[in-house]
Fold:
Amino acid sequence: MGCSHPVSSTVKSSTKFDIKALQIEQLQETLRGLGERGYRAEQVTDWLYKRRVESFENMTDLPHKLRSQLARLFAFDRLELVRALGSRDSTRKFLFRLADGNLIESVLIPASAALYGEKSDRRTICISTQVGCAYGCKFCASGLEGFSRNLRENEIVDQIIAVERESNERIDNVVFMGMGEPLANFENVRRAIRIINAPWGLGIGARRITVSTSGLAPQIRKLADDPLQIRLAVSLHGATDEVRNQIMPINRRYNVETLLSACDYYVAHKKQRLTFEYILIAGINDSDAQASFLAEHVRRLSAKVNLIPYNTVEGLEWSRPSRNRQERFLSILRAGGVAATLRREKGHDINAACGQLRLQTEREAVALPSRR
Ligand code: SAH
Ligand code: SF4
Structure:
């Protein structure tokens, strides 16, 4: 490939770089290398993110020659819908096939549904950042079959485009709470966020983008130093090392205090309120004592808490506490002066916890031939 565009070194004849993985500056440089004027880049991003065409051929205000040059240089992938579950007014779950055949999932939470127990007027999408997950939290379906690979930035952004296409709804809130650990795919996630946020991209405000992490302390500090004004959620799920070690292997690398001090750093640098996510699992992390320790951590950081009743995963032994126990845990937090909500779950019946639909589909695919 003779041209001088910035990604030519990564373009192989079989696996071309997807056009939607480019930042606008890279696109400008590519187009300059092809002898084009600067305004062409905005024309292209307009076709990609505003008008949402699905081929270079459909970019009808570009010269024919340029359209075929772009088609030679770049891939233009589209997520293929494999399965969708849920109804229009409830949480909807989408299973997509990537260009290499891997499966990922995204969840659409409609405006009428209560996210974190709060009424919201926003349509929220929950997106994946990896195929599988390497962190192996004991309650989570995403890690059950291990880790395959990081998602590219276009595969992250395409989930929003594909869900808007399939649902005919406009998404205005993005949470990185699907499959995978976003901060373990830091650079691609960062670049995807830029595309999601940029006026030339999807134009979703940074404060309407939330990244969730299982507690990668060094990356939390790195994110604190980044100018992006996105929100951060930390999956705590245990208020002491004793409890957290039982369910989250990452706690052996970054224990509760290491994690909290990275959170201190984040809050000091971002001047922003952090959210702790806390799944309630019966008999594991739902005691009064855990609630009191949790309240202490939350006060230290002036954070808030989202309590999420555990979502049953087939093959895992855990269960959710009784409604009474959930409410008692919540009331201890509130009595301790902590802002907390309890998620009145939508989507329990459609395997809406991350990784579950993919796992079920793969199990069925394995099970089918043996039924004959
Ligand atoms: N890896 C990141 C983001 C993806 S997981 C993280 O761990 O934060 C997003 C959220 O879904 C996390 O808070 C995770 O703990 C939660 N989750 C995973 N399995 C769940 C289950 N079975 N029931 C309820 N929430 C679950
Ligand atoms: Fe990975 Fe998050 Fe699931 Fe843990 S909870 S296994 S970090 S996706």
In short: DSSP finds eleven helices and 14 strands in the chain.
